[in-house]
Amino acid sequence: MNAASQGVSSERCRLYLITPPRLDPAAFRDVLAAALDAGDVASLQLRLKDASVDDVRRAVEILMPVAHARDVAFILNDDAKLAHELGCDGAHLGQTDGDHAGARALLKDRILGITCHASRHLAMEAGELGADYVAFGAFFPTDTKEVVHHAGTDILEWWTEMMEIPCVAIGGITAANCGPLVRAGADFLAVVGAVWNHPEGPAAGVRAMNAAIAAA
Ligand SMILES: Cc1ncc(COP(=O)(O)OP(=O)(O)O)c(N)n1
Ligand SMILES: Cc1ncsc1CCOP(=O)(O)O
Ligand SMILES: [Mg+2]
């Protein structure tokens, strides 16, 4: 199985790591390698905010090989065209990140993930369009992003009972609060702060998340 197919198919809940919103790729390379070496990570999303296209390109060139060397799928946030052009394993699109159907056609067998907030309707639409995963959230308060939509475990239970398409939970998830999400059926837990802001460093954050998932 290649990194792309591994990134969205799983029997058990797995960690979906998202980068900090701002980073210097040359300096971040070793930090990322240490985090990915600390435990199981299914996918890495490059989520740079306020970065130029050239900056994103450079970050992909430097960081994607680090992920691929460890069989971690590399997903680009916000831009399906650039993800395709740069050979990423897929793209994650929000509700205002362009044409989802066009992205599905462009990415072919690469991964397309779609933000569905806390909406059953958006999730059904994403599923019909051929999304490889749907993302629900935010489940908990977060400092990483200003969030408008708040999800509960009921949407994970509803989705997993009915659909085979994997679901990702996001928003303020930590080792301390993730148990109910895993038990409700989340296929992936997407995290930023729980890893990059862990008091003992990112490697400890990855270990703590994996231990909590296993214990749930
Ligand atoms: C896995 C995952 N889920 C949700 C999001 C949020 O995407 P979006 O709503 O487009 O917001 P931004 O991340 O672009 O600020 C995500 N990135 N990844
Ligand atoms: C990108 C995004 N979309 C909804 S919440 C969120 C932030 C996730 O970061 P954290 O894991 O630090 O709450
Ligand atoms: Mg977006």
Automatic annotation (TrEMBL):
PANTHER family xrefs: THIAMINE-PHOSPHATE PYROPHOSPHORYLASE, THIAMINE-PHOSPHATE SYNTHASE
Positions annotated to bind Mg(2+): D78, D97
Reactions performed catalytically: 4-methyl-5-(2-phosphooxyethyl)-thiazole + 4-amino-2-methyl-5-(diphosphooxymethyl)pyrimidine + H(+) = thiamine phosphate + diphosphate; 2-(2-carboxy-4-methylthiazol-5-yl)ethyl phosphate + 4-amino-2-methyl-5-(diphosphooxymethyl)pyrimidine + 2 H(+) = thiamine phosphate + CO2 + diphosphate; 2-[(2R,5Z)-2-carboxy-4-methylthiazol-5(2H)-ylidene]ethyl phosphate + 4-amino-2-methyl-5-(diphosphooxymethyl)pyrimidine + 2 H(+) = thiamine phosphate + CO2 + diphosphate
Assigned EC number: 2.5.1.3
Superkingdom field: Bacteria
Protein's UniProt name: Thiamine-phosphate synthase
The entry's keywords: Magnesium, Metal-binding, Thiamine biosynthesis, Transferase
Cofactor: Mg(2+)
Biological source species: Neoroseomonas eburnea
Function summary: Condenses 4-methyl-5-(beta-hydroxyethyl)thiazole monophosphate (THZ-P) and 2-methyl-4-amino-5-hydroxymethyl pyrimidine pyrophosphate (HMP-PP) to form thiamine monophosphate (TMP).
Cellular component terms (Gene Ontology): cytoplasm
Manner of cofactor binding, per the entry note: Binds 1 Mg(2+) ion per subunit.
Any single Pfam family the record assigns to this protein: TMP-TENI
GO molecular function list: magnesium ion binding; thiamine-phosphate diphosphorylase activity
SUPFAM superfamilies for this protein: Thiamin phosphate synthase (SSF51391)
Pathway annotation: Cofactor biosynthesis; thiamine diphosphate biosynthesis; thiamine phosphate from 4-amino-2-methyl-5-diphosphomethylpyrimidine and 4-methyl-5-(2-phosphoethyl)-thiazole: step 1/1
Binding-site residues for 4-amino-2-methyl-5-(diphosphooxymethyl)pyrimidine, renumbered to this chain: Q45, L46, R47, L48, K49, N77, T115, K145
Keyword Magnesium: yes
Residues reported to bind 2-[(2R,5Z)-2-carboxy-4-methylthiazol-5(2H)-ylidene]ethyl phosphate: T142, D143, T144, G172
UniProt record similarity statement: Belongs to the thiamine-phosphate synthase family.
Keyword Iron in annotation: no
Domain Thiamine phosphate synthase/TenI as annotated: residue spans: 15-195
Enzyme class: transferase
GO BP terms: thiamine biosynthetic process; thiamine diphosphate biosynthetic process
